Amino acid sequence: LLNDIYVSDVKKEVGFAKKAQAGLELPGWWKLSGSIRKIDSDFHSLSFNPTSNQTTWNGNLSITKLKWLPVSGSIQKSITVTPRENINLSQAPMAQYLSFWDEGKVESLSYSGKAQLKIRRLPQISGDYSHSITSASLQGKVDISDKIHGKISYTLPNLLILPRSFSIDGTRQTTETQYSLPNSTDTGNITESLNGSFSFPGLKLLNFTVTPKYSRQKIGKKIDDELLHVLQKQTLGGTVSGNLKLIKWLGIRFSYQANVDENYNAPSSTRHYHEGITDLKDINRNSSADLSFPLNFRSIFNFSPTNSLNLNYSIKITDGDIYKNVASDFY
User: What are the Cα distances from residue 178, in Å, to 138, 211, 227, 268?
Assistant: First the structure.
């Protein structure tokens, strides 16, 4: 029977973790908060085993005094330092260029802000912007990202020729990677999208909604100290759906959607980057239409044995075509 175990010369590791946060608020006007957290690489627990020193700062601000124009923003900064003895040299491209005592450092900074314009009987407009930059010494690169988004929506008077309500939102995001490695080329990407929704109430017989969409992607490469982009992919499509009620007991539900996807071949020369487009592309077109005829016998005649009887007949038609390696100006 073993009751006790005694050990000597126990190995000890001393680490620390600290956290502090604070907030300040003026009710009805603004609210401010912030925090800081530090974790040492020697701080261990049963579920947490860091290999680097981590420090993070956070800050948030919101202004609510103007009910018709609320504004908010946030900022965050973090620094992660990995001691030399914890660095996996096989996964660090820049390790061969660092001295023996250099540490691995990842530093990031990000901030964002958003606002919304809300005035009665006027279109509602909202927008937000975010920026982030991250540098990694062992990876030998800096990643930069910017994103902007905006949206407008409005409900109009009930006029026959105009949509009852509509919304349009767009997004543009750019990314760039800058390398400090020898024989490396900086790269970048641009992603843009535009979406809409238009609702037409029409008459009692017909109502429908139109939702168009468009997006495109570009890839970039630094040539002669200038980051040039070439079109990689774009998509155009939309959907129309609604209801048509010819008589009281017969309604028709319909939907039609179409999409055109264009994928451009990878650029093979610097000429493509200067022109912004390659010579060849693939096109994928597809569309589909749905019709359904729901029938409720209770709406025709009130006869208890058939009041719970419902019938539905639907039709779906699809179509599509694919073009491979066609000229970039082919539509």
Answer: 13, 38, 11, 21
Query: Tens of pLDDT along the chain (331 residues)?
Result: 566 776 666 667 777 789 999 999 999 899 999 999 998 877 777 666 677 888 999 999 999 999 999 999 999 999 988 877 766 666 566 655 555 556 678 899 999 999 999 998 889 999 999 999 999 887 888 999 999 999 999 988 766 567 788 999 999 999 999 988 778 889 999 999 999 999 987 667 788 899 999 999 999 999 888 899 999 999 999 999 998 887 777 788 899 999 999 999 988 888 888 888 888 999 999 999 999 988 777 777 777 777 777 788 889 999 999 999 999 888 7
Pairing of β 141-155 and β 124-136: antiparallel
- CB contact set of 91 (below 8 Å; sequence gap of 6+): none
DSSP character at residue 8: -
Please choose, from the candidates 285, 286, 293, 287, the residue with its C-alpha nearest in 3D space to the C-alpha of residue 254: 293
